Structure formats: structure tokens, C-alpha cells
Amino acid sequence: MGLELYLDLISQPCRAVYIFAKKNGIPFELRTVELLKGQHHSDAFAQVNPLKKVPALKDGDFTLAESLSVLAAKSSKADPSWLHGANAWRPPWERTSFRRHMQLS
């Protein structure tokens, strides 16, 4: 079985993951989890994601359940070069260049 995405397109993080996969031509099987019906609280979904949150990605036995992690994992199946900009998302004290500056001072 290939990549499975557990999403509800009513959720903005789910839409971001869905659009990213479609735009980059990443093949996946969509598993709709209807949030308004409470399907994310079901025992069946808890086996996929014990946190009972969407989006979730399942690739064989490997499961991710955080939207940024899902995007990062999916990017490795597409073009990993976009992750080079991920440093901008970190607080200044976690950035490599900032630490290097602090060590030189």
C-alpha cells in the first residue's frame, strides 16, 4: 500500500497538505476524516493517530501526525530543496547562523 493521507478539507492545515501533495504530483490515497461528525475521536482513527488529530500521514508502518512534519516528509518524495528555507521558521536562538554569531562574540 502507498502513501495514505487522513484529512478533512474543512481544516486549513489539511488543505495545505492536500494542495502540497497535488501541486508536487505526489501520489496518495485520500482517507477522509470528517471532523464535524467526530470521526477523529473514533477508535479506528486512534490506531492511526493516538493524538486523534488531522492531518495524518501513513506510509506502510510509518505514521506522522503533525502538519509541518507531514509537509516535510512529503517534500522528500518531491523536491527536498524547499526545506532549506525552514531555518526562517525557527526562533533566532535556534538558528545555526545566530549560534555561530554568539560563539564568535
TrEMBL record:
<dbReference type="InterPro" id="IPR036249">
    <property type="entry name" value="Thioredoxin-like_sf"/>
</dbReference>
<feature type="domain" description="GST N-terminal">
    <location>
        <begin position="1"/>
        <end position="82"/>
    </location>
</feature>
<dbReference type="InterPro" id="IPR051369">
    <property type="entry name" value="GST_Theta"/>
</dbReference>
<dbReference type="InterPro" id="IPR004045">
    <property type="entry name" value="Glutathione_S-Trfase_N"/>
</dbReference>
<dbReference type="GO" id="GO:0005737">
    <property type="term" value="C:cytoplasm"/>
</dbReference>
<comment type="subunit">
    <text>Homodimer.</text>
</comment>
<keyword id="KW-0963">Cytoplasm</keyword>
<keyword id="KW-0808">Transferase</keyword>
<dbReference type="InterPro" id="IPR040075">
    <property type="entry name" value="GST_N_Theta"/>
</dbReference>
<comment type="similarity">
    <text>Belongs to the GST superfamily. Theta family.</text>
</comment>
<dbReference type="GO" id="GO:0004364">
    <property type="term" value="F:glutathione transferase activity"/>
</dbReference>
<dbReference type="Pfam" id="PF02798">
    <property type="entry name" value="GST_N"/>
</dbReference>
<dbReference type="GO" id="GO:0006749">
    <property type="term" value="P:glutathione metabolic process"/>
</dbReference>
<protein>
    <recommendedName>
        <fullName>glutathione transferase</fullName>
        <ecNumber>2.5.1.18</ecNumber>
    </recommendedName>
</protein>
